Amino acid sequence: MVRKVNILKHELVPEARLLTKEEVKEIFRRMEIRISEIPWIFASDPMAKALGAKPGDVIMIIRKSKTSGKSVAFRFVMPG
Amino acid sequence: MPRKKAKKTTRSKKRASRRKKKTVKAVKEEKRISRGISYEEAFALVERYSYILPQNLREELISKIIENEMNLEEATELLNEVVRRYQNSLVDPGEAVGMVAAQSVGEPSTQMTLRTFHFAGVREFNVTLGLPRLIEIVDARRVPSTPIMHIYLEDDVKNDKDKVLDIARKIELTTVENIAKDVTLDYLESSIIIDLDPEMLENRGVTVEDVLKMLNRIKGKKGRIERQGDYTIVFYTGIDDISRLRRMFDRVLGLRLKGIKGINHTIIRYDEENKEYMIIAEGSNLAAVLQVEGVDIRRTRTNNISEILEVLGIEATRTAIIEEMSNVLSEQGLDVDIRHIMLIADAMTLTGRLRQVGRHGVAGEKASVLARAAFEVTVKHLTDAAMRGEVDDLRGVTENVIIGSRPIPLGTGIVKLLMKYGFNPKEQ
Prior knowledge:
The structure holds 2 protein chains of 2 kinds. By secondary structure, chain A is of the alpha+beta class. Helices cover 21% and strands 31% of the residues of chain A. Chain A is built from 2 helices and 4 strands. Chain A has helices at 21-31, 46-51; strands spanning 15-18, 40-42, 58-65, 69-78. A 4-stranded mixed sheet of chain A has the order 1-3-4-2, with no helix packed on it. Chain B is α+β, with helices and mostly antiparallel strands. Chain B folds into 4 domains: 23-89, no CATH class; 100-146 and 303-365, PTS-regulatory domain, PRD (Orthogonal Bundle); 174-258, 2-Layer Sandwich (Gyrase A, domain 2); 371-414, DNA polymerase, domain 1 (Orthogonal Bundle), CATH 1.10.150.390. Helix content of chain B is 49%, strand content 13%. Chain B contains 18 helices and 12 strands. Chain B has helices at residues 2-34, 39-47, 55-67, 72-89, 97-110, 130-138, 161-171, 176-179, 198-204, 208-218, 242-253, 286-290, 305-312, 314-331, 338-349, 369-375, 378-388, 397-403; strands at 116-118, 127-129, 148-151, 174-175, 180-186, 191-196, 224-228, 232-236, 256-258, 265-271, 276-282, 301-302. Chain B has a 4-stranded antiparallel sheet. A 4-stranded antiparallel sheet of chain B has the order 5-6-8-7. Chain B has a two-stranded antiparallel sheet with strand order 1-2. The radius of gyration of chain B is 34 Å and the shape is flat. Chain B starts with a helix and ends in a 25-residue tail after the last helix. Chains A and B meet through β2, α2, β3 and β4 of A and α3, α13, α14 and α15 of B.
């Protein structure tokens, strides 16, 4: 009775996608921040796993926000 | 007199409406000439500020531009004004937002009724709410004091009560203790006598064979199981040691026959709002419940936040913290701005793990020794720091207050001046 559960479909999990290396460069240059300054997500995190993220990647998260409709956040994938 | 007056007013009203009709017509004609910009134009115009204005503000702007049939000039003017005001309303750099959040959540929670129990629409359940629940969330406790799941079902089963009942039975944990009239321990024979209750067996959908099968798995090499009569099972354990026998007895009592570990009780409720049946479960085991056929993966919820972290990840945890906290506060009629709660959730989930707001988490991981010492267990932090040879960079607020430096790095005090020595602006 093993059922394939796609956690990305769950209401609580916001829309997310993996950024390419070029996108990361471009976005961080535009926002004038360093990668070390963004929140983390572990590579073992269910969401990171579902997206196939590897340590060193950046995940772009599009959250539904009560104050601004949609808000974009980034998380840096940490080993572990 | 009143009659006359009434007549007069109706007449004047008529006149007014006639006048109004004219003006509306005129205005419409006028607009046809001046016509506002199209939706696409408005969208392109507003979208230029997509990096400044949040989405819902942009949407509102577009709809207002269309609604009022603004031309390009007016729309640009409006947009500039909105951008100016929006930027003015932003938090200033250096503002102590954490402190403001702490006070904004802390003060209202002193107004909360201590120890509130709420019966969630159904008899048996009570759910921790109010201050105890708030503390539980912020402390990032492993297991909440009253774990509860709201299990929603997929479209093809959610309106069929029998099927829902079936799923509920599959989920609810059934142990030997639940279906036995009596379980006794015979020390002389070192056997366990299980007297099953036929009614309970029927109720829980378990057969005697099921019980025998499960018992066989734990009986061990020396064990022997005998069925006496229809509903009595004798389990000769073959264990001599009394304390081990007792342990075996407990194991038999808690033997899982059916259901999911952790879910002690289920109730089926008809959700009036969504017109469907759903299951409320006492106890929580998100990973296992999501595995059950017929359970809606998208909507099923638990109030166990560390379980959400394990199954759904850190982002879902953030969402869950915000939702749980604002639910607790609004339940008590307290109006706390959601931005404060969002900040707390962000701080708790910053490192990818769940940190508590307390001595082991957000406050306990501060970089400064002095700041940590000022919070709790002062001497321990100071001696530990001395042993490790820690250095304090004095970048936070607390440590600067302690050493009495001026100004503290907060608000206007956070601004630093960079000066190029020997730089003459006139030369440029």
